[in-house]
Amino acid sequence: MSISQRTLNWITLLEYTQIIIMRIPFLVAFLMLFFSSTFVFAQNKTQSENDMIDQVYKLFGNAYKFKNADMFKHLYTEDCIFLDSEASSGIKNQAGAIDSFREMFENGSRDGLKYEINFKFTRRDVIESIAYDAGYYELTTINYEGEPSKSYGKFLTILKKGEDGIWRIFADSYSKSNEDAYMAIN
Fold first, then answer.
1. How many domains are contained in the chain?
2. Which of 27, 61, 80, 158 has the fewest CB atoms below 10 angstroms from its CB?
3. 43 is a domain residue
4. 4-26: burial string, b at 16+ Cβ within 10 Å, e else
């Protein structure tokens, strides 16, 4: 190999190096844009799932507000497990859960009661089509004279995303708590 050919090879190598160095900022910018958009997409997907799960609790609240036990058919899976801490037979299926709500709402209607339920969450995990929520609730019962009475509890639910893309409660358990525990949650 002659000196001029070696010089030409070095010049070609230097040109390629310059081209690569000049393109590094564009490559870095492209990679940053790609990874940030992937992160935003994943974050938006998670936020979207959280929003859909939040709708379950809004509908739950509406079922209480309208004293409509049939709404729970759409909120619980057909194979759900409802753990009723106040019943003699604590483990119920979907029909048993709906019957419990129906009995409460019928008794409340007879006595002129109105209901409002609010939820505060201490934890939520969503992994693909399964979610788990833990938190506290405040149940306000308003008597026929308009006087409110509050009771508090803690809950744990497991939700499943159905083939139709709708989240429903698969397992629901609750127990009594107190106002201090509820108010301590932000």
1. 1
2. 27
3. no
4. eeeeeeeeeeeeeeeeeeeeeee
- Asked if residue 117 lies in contact with residue 61, where contact means CB atoms within 8 angstroms, the answer is yes
Query: In this predicted model, what pLDDT tens digit does every residue of 67-92 receive, in sequence order?
Result: 999 999 999 999 999 998 776 677 89
**Residue span of the structural domain in which 149 resides:** 48-183
Domain membership flag for residue 124: yes
Token reading at 120? 């505060």
**Cα 54 from Cα 154, distance rounded (Å):** 17
| pTM exceeds cut of 0.85 | no
Residue 148 lies in a domain: yes
